[in-house]
Amino acid sequence: MRQLIAKRLIQTIPLLFFVSIVCFALIKAAPGDPVLSFVTPNMHAEDIERVRANLGLDKPAYVQYGLWLKELLKGNLGYSLVNHQPVAALILERLPATAGLMGCAILLAVILAIPLGLIAGAFHNKWVDKLITFLSYIGISVPLFWLAILLIYLFAIKLHWLPSMGMRTVGVNSAADVIKHGILPVSVLAFSFLSSYVRYVRSSTIGQLREDYVQIQYAYGSSRWIVLFRHVLKHVLLPIITLLGMSLAELVTGAIVTETVFSWPGIGSLGMTAVRGMDYPIIMGITLFSALLLIIGNLLADVLYGFADPRIKSSR
Amino acid sequence: MTRIRSTALIFVLLALVIAACSGNNGNNGGNNGNNAGSTNESSSSGSEVSGEIKDGGSLIFGVGSDPLVLNPIYAGDRVSLTIDQALFAPLFQVNNGEKTFYLAESLTPSEDGLTYTLKLKEGLQWHDGQPLTADDVVFTFDTILDEKQNSLFRSNLILGGEPIKAVKVDDRTVDFKLPQVNPAFEATLVQLTPIPKHVFENEANIEQSEKNLYNVVGSGPFKFKEYKPGEYLTLERFDDYVLGKPHLDSITYRIAKDSNAALLALQNGELNVNYINPQDVPTIEANGNFEILPYSEGRLAYLLFNENSANGMLAKKEVRQAISYALNREEMIQTIYSSGEYADPAKSFVTPDGLFWTNDVTTYDNDVEKAKELLAAAGANNLNLKFIISSGNKAMEAASLYVQQKLKDVGITVEIQSLDASAFSQKFADASATDFDLAYSGYIMGYDPDAYRILYQSDADSNYSHYNNPKVDELFDQGASEPDPEKRGAIYRELQEIIAEDAVIYPVAYTKTIVAVDKRFGGIEEAVLKPVVIFEDPSKLYLK
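Output (structure tokens, whole complex):
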């Protein structure tokens, strides 16, 4: 087991290297550069060229990449080309907001998805199943920004129950205030995650219900609910582990659309601004960070899988 | 059977959603009045309307993004400039040719126009209590001129290859020594906001300083209190402000990245001041809690002709005139800005706030027959033009569709190419781009017409039209160094006529910006609505 983890961790290094090259190449292949994002007609070409040179943007792309990599190996993610603050600090500063938002949304989605999926699977093709499946289709197909605006309109403008934007009231620093601001964005995100999770749980429930052990339980006289929540549940939880492992990366990359609509101060909205301004040190920082977490999340899921189902462990 | 049932279910659900959204509309007006007080989170709610100006209260501006750099020698984005207006005091400002002095007490040019003597007011202070002196002004000047410090204003302080020099005379007096006569120098000084020497003198790279965003030390009516990236930035009252203690206790800039969400937050009372689009005016008016203030931005929106374009046709004056004839300015304004209320028809390349502006120039407008004649005479048959737009930019989209339709009538085919924002700005600014003909753009150049030479002189940096007229080059040079206002006026009026007659651009409108301000706040007139930064002096605002 330990060997496996070590091996997988070593494998991440070339992978991250590869990710960084692809990402950098894509940024450089796109037209435009960060200096253009703050140029106005009143500025002289000479000034623009000087600033571009001072930022190193006049060098060929491979040289820029080399310089970036050299700094990275020293543990420095560089400085934003637009507001000139250190990238690592910018990401860390916004990490708690995003991790909190996504954590709550994923947790809520899983808690709701398991019973809903089980019920839908158990009543395969009955009206309950149809309703749940229908709602999950809505969740997948509805554009998040639209849903978000609709909820803001309803709960903030019409009912005045909740604030419409931000993470806290100006000047107020309390957990209750943050929670109040978080309800809408968390609900929107949870709804979108929920939909795909429910479909996972549902199809795996349908599969499990055909297994022999279920028939045996019925033969022993167990009720439908006991079979479902005591026996099938355990099997259904397995794919959820993989889902959670994959979502570790989402914990940091966040939800660009949702964060932007709700002015949630997370990494998603930082990334959005960076992409618009071609601010490559920030884009690279976020990409690397999320790639790293995706790899770790997968590894974690594999390890947990081994614990949850010893058959898998022994087969390796 | 089951299919019918699930279809019915869809309708029921949709009906519920729609009902929930529209159910409250009936008693909209009555409700909003009551709710405004209860939802306003930070403003004191016990406000009675009285004639006297009271102190206290706080104001929340909505801004579209985080500020990039609050240090005024680097600030170039709208949000940073807006915040800097409260955080830093300028030396002086100019409105309609009248100077308002802030930090400066006077500015006197010498007889020969080569030295400007700036006198600072007495007892000026930075927010941290340190005195603000001539040393700070000289330091600011030298930092901008220092090539290592990356300031984008550097070229403005260079005249004919020689830098302007700032020399300290005593603690309150600075002499600016110009290498040549430059009547536009006052306009340059307007943009020069002193930064504190004692804060930055030991920083090797001022641009990367943390003090550009956190604990910023300024001299304006409000001082830095708190910045939460992605959320808000709060400033609090500075009692020793040069023009007297501000009325409000604090000003907050809330970052609302999505414009639709910002509009909802405004209606919900979570923002007190925000820009709004012409289309949204009825919604905000119906809300009843806001004053709608359209004001001129000193901005010209125009149709650009790329004279470098590969087909060579736009380099011909007649073709540009013909295209202008094919268009109808009033109609175009209606199409792009939904009403003439928020955009005045433009004919000159100078904006109405500029010195020597005149709209009494040659114009080619709305004459399809004339357009066809000119095109035939120029040998431009079956012309194919490419119009580039930045995707998602509503004004550019509307302009391109309008132009496409109108030019069809005179036999010109317009192909619209939508580019992503950074690709668009790169192509637009690329002097060697020959693969596009038309674009819709705008500029804000300030009040001194010398600023426009960067757009229209043949070898200038922002000559996006690639216009080349030696007479124009010469006149701009003359205007820059002509000290007599009368002769100067004649030069710039002639320039406006030549450029209009050559149809270098098709000026469309002097656009206005629309700001919604919560009715509970007063002092808007005294604070002076100003292009880009909203209020010139936020210290004058108060809670009624």
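Chain B touches chain A through 76 residues (CB under 8 Å).
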